[in-house]
């Protein structure tokens, strides 16, 4: 039986089911701790498998793709804040002042890492460049975000809270160490990973589902949904949708205008249009220790869920286009080969006829 066109793909349905599950049965207490641990393990496994899959030549090529990294960096730390500030006169009436403060804060944050790489992999983009670009964004963001917050959000003293070096240590431990371990073990398990690509897909999608469940569970447990007017919540959803749509359009058409390949375009879109909840929550606790923390992090929570849902659909569409393009190229190659063989056969017929005529003439 054919699948109805209006029905979303399986992964999108799993994302919706995960959000519904977290809304009615959020993880809390020991369960929340267990799911956070499981999420960290899944993310580490994702980076380990990508490290084992990617050749060192591919990793070096991704690291030296400076035009791509520059565009992603500019989208994350320049275009995003400009969009947030420019849209304030247009969108601020839809939400409370505290909520739009949170909107400006999310515009200053670094890009998400694990989901950007997972979506890039699902969409068949440039994964080595995504690993380098997203990881660099997260590292540099620890220092750049506080400066941007001071410039466009609020003045703060930043005297309390954890050291930014703790965040760097966590990123190194959770992301870079597994990736390097995978690279070092590539000779031993690289061929096995290539033969079992389905396992990598399961880890890609599983890590995203775990991030969605744990993040949405945290939002439900904090009770923020009951602390703001319903109209302001709807307005906040509208603000997040407008900003996300603009950034997706800007990154997509910038990549095409600058002549990047389809694989690079995928990486730019998924790394340059996303914001990190994992980095944003700890930063908010440091930067807004005496401010309205709940209202400030709520836009980030909603934007995070929205970007995961939208990018899941985009990743599936990109992957389908890539498969269609590859199938079209294979079909075109087969047709060309057939046409060449047919032409060769046609050219051979006159030669055979001439040979027969020559023989007949010799007989006479």
UniProtKB/TrEMBL annotation:
GO CC list: plasma membrane
Region ranges (Disordered): 324-364
Highest taxon of the lineage: Bacteria
Signal peptide positions on this chain: none
Skewed-composition ranges (Low complexity): 324-348
A Pfam match: SBF_like
Protein name, as recorded: Bile acid:sodium symporter
Organism: Pandoraea captiosa
